[in-house]
Structures are given as structure tokens and as C-alpha cells.
Amino acid sequence: MSQDLRPQLEAGIHALSLDLAPAQVDALMEFMGLLGKWNKVYNLTAVRDPQEMLTHHLLDSLAAVPALRRHLDGLPAREGRMAMLDVGSGGGLPGVVFAICCPDVDVNCVDTVGKKAAFIQQVAVTLRLPNLRGIHSRVEQLATHYPLISCRAFASLVDFTTWSRQALEEGGVWLAMKGKHPDEEIAALAGDVQVFHVEPLQVPGLQAERCIVWLKPHAT
After folding, report:
1. pLDDT at 171
2. Structural domain boundaries, residue 47
3. Cα separation values, 198 from 72, 117, 175, Å
4. How do the residues of the chain divide into helix, strand and coil, expressed in percent and rounded to 5?
5. CA–CA distance, 208 with 91 (Å, rounded to integer)
6. Which tens digit of pLDDT belongs to each residue from 183-206?
7. E strands, 89-179, where?
8. Contact status, residue 31 vs residue 96, Cβ threshold 8 Å
9. DSSP codes joined into one string, 154-185
10. Mean pLDDT rounded to a whole number for the chain
11. What is the model's pLDDT at position 29?
12. How remote is the C-alpha of 121 from its chain's centroid?
């Protein structure tokens, strides 16, 4: 990714009040470079223009990091490292961004397309991210349970929660990144799934509606 976009990335990070080390900014830039390089062969994303990659992918994913961090900070202490699952990660959005910005969280990115999972693994090696892993699988077939499951532009809320339900740890929550407030999708949810917060997001440099829908199973 062209280094002349770095000032815009840094301005976006500042606008989001994110406290990132220079090495993390370096990693974000290198990730976008890898995404552009691999995209030529593996068709990871329809976005080709570096400027659009910055706003529509990188900054769009970064906009969710403050909300993610607040959620993590509010969790009770647990033994071992926190692990989360990002469903339908594709080219690693937002999973790779989450892994870079939250090094204390193990981010597992699952995708049904083998070349996309392989790309995530390559990113983990190239950027030296021991907390990032690509998984080639259907989410319904995973045996591990996670306290947090995220997605971005993956599927309807109904499909997302239904397919990933068995992978959600007891007491866990879902984080779904959406565009406009998804009223129809929320209305279609099963009765045992509760939306407990819809959080608007402001993406620097992108004049479009974005939000996070936080969900959890109803207590039985």
C-alpha cells in the first residue's frame, strides 16, 4: 500500500482516539499492502483502489476497535488469554485489524474459502502476529467455544447468529458490523436472541452509516 496514504491513516487513528504504537501503524500499512498484492491473484476483495481500501476496509474496521476495547475492558478477569472468533473474515477484515490493535486477544478468523484462510495465515507469519490464526472451515463445524464472535458484511443477523450459535461460549456475545440500522434483520431474529445495544460508528473519511449490533442469547 502506498506510503503516501499513511498520513491519512494516522489522521483517522487520531480521530478515533485510538492509542496505537508506531509498530502497530506499520503493521496496518503492511497488511493493506499484502491485501493489495494477494488480491491480484486470489480476489480477496472487490475493492482495488488503495484509497478505497484505506477508507472502506481499514478505517471502517478500525472504527469498531474502540467499541471492542470497551467491551473487553468490561469483562471479568479470566484465566489464560481471551480468544475471539471472526466469521467470514475474507481478506481479514476486521479480524486482522482487531489482532493488530488488540495484541492481548487471540483472533481466530474462519472462512469457508481455503485461499482466504491461507491469506490470514500468511499475514500472521509476515506481520509476526502470534495472536492471529486463519481457519478453513464452516463456522457450524467448529468445536471450540468463544466468548466473543464477530462479523462484518458477512450475512443477515439471523444467519450469523444461527450458524455460529454452537461456537458461542455460555455467557458470550455477538458483535455484528453493519451499515444502516438493520431494523428488518433485528425484527427477524429468533425469540431466543436479544439485541442489547446498537452502537453507531463514525468512519473517518467515509460518509456512510455504520453501526455495531451487539447481541446475546436470551438467558434460559
Report:
1. 94
2. 3-217
3. 17, 29, 10
4. 45, 25, 35
5. 21
6. 999 999 988 999 999 999 999 999
7. 105-111, 132-136, 146-152, 168-178
8. yes
9. -S-HHHHHHHHGGGEEEEEEEEEEESS--HHH
10. 93
11. 96
12. 16
Query: To which residue does cell 488480491 refer?
Result: 39
For the segment 11-53, what is each residue's pLDDT rounded down to a tens digit?
999 999 999 999 999 999 999 999 888 887 777 776 677 788 8
Strand order in the sheet with 146-152: 132-136, 105-111, 82-87, 146-152, 168-178, 210-217, 193-201
pTM, rounded to two decimals: 0.95
Residue 192, classed as helix, strand or coil, is: coil
Output the pLDDT for position 2.
Answer: 62
pLDDT beyond 90 at 210? yes
* Pairing state between β 193-201 and 168-178: unpaired
What does the CA dihedral 197, 203, 209, 213 come to, rounded to 10 degrees?
A: -20
Q: What is the DSSP letter of 219?
A: P
Q: Residue 178: which CATH number?
A: 3.40.50.150
Q: What is the largest CA-CA distance in the chain?
A: 53
Selection from 143, 144, 158, 145 nearest residue 213 by Cα: 158
Residues 6+ apart with CB under 8 A from 13: 20, 25, 62
Q: Hunting for cell 451499515 — which residue is that?
A: 179
Helix (H, G, I), strand (E, B) or coil at 70: helix
User: What pLDDT, on the 0 to 100 scale, is given for residue 68?
Assistant: 97
Check pLDDT > 90 for residue 100. yes
Q: How many domains does the chain have?
A: 1
